[in-house]
Recover the amino acids of this structure.
């Protein structure tokens, strides 16, 4: 029987090479790219190490999937720069907004079980009017909150801002007719957490552990910090590589508190590609266009500037996943962005080829474009719309 064991090499740009054994993943001598060409592990190593050095990216985990399976998983650089501690496949990192797609995976399981309906107004799941909850008292007097559904919260069409703290008055408002346009909103995902916890009468951290992390063998993933993470966790680093420390989150937040590792999140993306633990129709719905995107940029979400530039790739949003189309079929993607943390994943559904980038650096987005184009031959990512300025672009 063939042994599916890979020795994970941790490439450290300035401190030599370290190796460790990690989770059992296939060891590929070459990795298939979208155009049918192949790239070798040594070519990947050279590309990643060069880009990290040029862009001052402290640490990075790179996963590549072929045929829906993980074929390449390596970590590079440092989890703690001062101590020269290498980032490992099991180093706990902030998932940032990767959290949203894991939460959506849970929600769709609940929809399958009839606990939620995607198009039922979410206020109807609550025992009292939404504005009577202190966190939503700002909505008193605006009846449009009664139009907001689970679908709208997942596809970012609720009318909420990303976060109320970015509003001049720091209050929560509905900025447009719910369902009418895309505007990325962490507030919307947070409201859905309130609905889920109210209906199930269970804390989100427990639901995610039981329904997502444990079934997918994501043994070092949690919605809140755990003592077991202390031995191998990463610090986040700013643009000057000053340490911001780890994210020790103590309260579950459906929009961004998930703590995970390069190895664990690779398992989650593999599960999405393979359609694990969701019915075929639920997975298809999750990755089907719910709203066309015409905004010039993803951020700031409430900008009314529009463009036709992304019509050729049919840029749109599904249920928590972004979508676009290429000659290689549909791609689904998700970003993760927080101070000291930059993450990105994209998968091509027909080809079953995908990639996950996780970094503990505020400079991480600067290397996405070249990584995607070199390692995947993916030249279709809406880089400008997502705001991913290459590290070597004119300033």
């Amino acid at each position: 029987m063939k042994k599916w064991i890979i020795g994970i090499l941790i490439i450290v740009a300035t401190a030599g090479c370290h190796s460790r054994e990690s989770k059992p993943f296939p060891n590929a001598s070459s990795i298939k790219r979208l155009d049918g060409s192949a790239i070798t592990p040594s070519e990947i190593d050279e590309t990643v190490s060069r880009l990290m050095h040029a862009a001052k990216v402290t640490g990075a985990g790179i996963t590549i999937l072929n045929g829906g399976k993980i074929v390449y998983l390596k970590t590079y650089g440092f989890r703690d720069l001062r101590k020269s501690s290498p980032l490992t496949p099991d180093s706990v990192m902030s998932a940032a907004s990767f959290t949203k797609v894991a939460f959506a995976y849970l929600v769709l399981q609940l929809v399958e079980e009839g606990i939620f309906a995607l198009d039922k107004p979410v206020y109807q799941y609550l025992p009292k009017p939404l504005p009577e909850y202190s966190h939503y008292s700002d909505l008193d007097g605006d009846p449009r909150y009664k139009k907001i559904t689970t679908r709208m919260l997942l596809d970012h069409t609720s009318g909420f801002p990303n976060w109320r703290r970015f509003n001049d008055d720091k209050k929560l408002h509905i900025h447009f007719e719910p369902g009418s346009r895309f505007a990325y909103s962490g507030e919307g995902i947070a409201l859905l957490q309130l609905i889920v916890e109210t209906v199930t009468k269970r804390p989100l951290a427990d639901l995610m552990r039981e329904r997502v992390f444990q079934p997918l063998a994501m043994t070092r993933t949690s919605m809140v910090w755990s003592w077991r993470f202390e031995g191998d966790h990463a610090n986040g680093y700013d643009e000057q590589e000053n340490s911001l420390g780890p994210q020790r989150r103590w309260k579950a937040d459906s929009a961004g508190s998930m703590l995970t590792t390069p190895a664990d999140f690779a398992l989650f993306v593999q599960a999405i590609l393979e359609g694990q633990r969701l019915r075929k129709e639920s997975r298809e719905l999750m990755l089907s266009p719910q709203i066309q995107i015409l905004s010039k940029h993803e951020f700031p979400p409430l900008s009314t500037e529009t463009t036709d530039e992304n019509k050729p790739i049919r840029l749109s949003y599904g249920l928590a996943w972004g979508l676009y189309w290429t000659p290689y079929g549909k791609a689904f993607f998700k970003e993760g962005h927080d101070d000291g943390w930059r993450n990105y994943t994209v998968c091509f559904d027909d080809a079953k080829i995908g990639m996950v980038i996780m970094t503990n650096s505020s400079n991480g987005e600067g290397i996405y474009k070249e990584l995607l184009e070199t390692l995947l031959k993916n030249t279709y990512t809406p880089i400008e719309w997502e705001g991913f300025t290459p590290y070597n672009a004119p300033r």
Summary: Residues 1-24 have pLDDT under 50 and may be disordered. The first strand starts at residue 7 and ends at 12. DSSP finds nine helices and 17 strands in the chain.
